[in-house]
UniProtKB/TrEMBL annotation:
Protein name stated in the entry: Hypoxanthine phosphoribosyltransferase
GO molecular function, one term: hypoxanthine phosphoribosyltransferase activity
Transmembrane spans: none
SUPFAM superfamilies per the UniProt record, alphabetical: PRTase-like
The protein's Enzyme Commission number: 2.4.2.8
Higher taxonomy: Bacteria, Bacillati, Actinomycetota, Actinomycetes, Micrococcales
Domain of life from the UniProt record: Bacteria
């Protein structure tokens, strides 16, 4: 559709809700990592929005690096297969790593990623995610910072896509059924 608004069913989290929750999480991260040198690892492509909005709220001088992994392809179901499309540039040895994600759905992506990054000799590895779907969890992932727990519905916006679209919506919403069936 020419107008993304026609494809939406309802707004789950507004731009304002996302922003004020990020204020709180950023303050926690600043306190928890006071005096430490933090490497934020953003998981492309979904984490682009939360990485940009979280990083600019932190007062500590963090570094940012990116990894591209994919588990979904272009559909709506997790395949459980994680592929590295782009690896980190940074050496993780002795670093405090904070993985930044848009959503934890089955948990398969992050459980794989945490194990992968832990094997590279970091001082610590923690996770910050904007969204988590507890009902969809297939594996248990220990997450330090969670923005919002949401119901097990397919959501888009604020980085999250359906077939690579809707990532640029500034809020999180659900798609109208006609989008899937067309
Ligand atoms: C989505 C999302 C998370 C992951 C969560 O990424 O951004 O990274 O799936 O799913 P899981 O907990 O079931 O593993 P996706 O693989 O769609 O790639 P993208 O970020 O490029 O959209
Ligand atoms: Mn992703
Ligand atoms: Mg995706």
């Amino acid at each position: 559709a020419a107008d993304m608004g026609d494809d939406l069913e309802r707004v789950l989290l507004t731009e304002e809700q996302l922003a004020s929750r990020l204020d709180e999480i950023a303050a926690q991260i600043d306190a928890d990592y006071a005096g430490k040198d933090v490497l934020l690892v953003g998981v492309l492509k979904g984490a682009v929005m939360v990485m940009a909005d979280l990083a600019r709220r932190l007062h500590s001088p963090v570094q940012m690096d990116w990894m591209a992994v994919s588990s979904y392809g272009s559909g709506t179901k997790s395949s459980g297969v994680v592929r590295i499309l782009k690896d980190l540039d940074a050496d993780l040895h002795g670093r405090h790593v904070l993985i930044v994600e848009d959503i934890i759905d089955s948990g398969l992506t992050l459980s794989w990623l945490v194990a992968n990054l832990r094997s590279r000799g970091p001082e610590s590895v923690e996770i910050a995610t904007m969204l988590r779907k507890p009902e969809a969890a297939k594996v248990d992932v220990e997450v330090r910072y969670v923005g919002f727990e949401i119901p097990n519905e397919f959501v888009v916006g604020y980085g999250l896509d359906y077939a690579e679209r809707y990532r640029n919506l500034p809020f999180v919403g659900t798609l109208a059924p006609h989008v899937y069936s067309s």
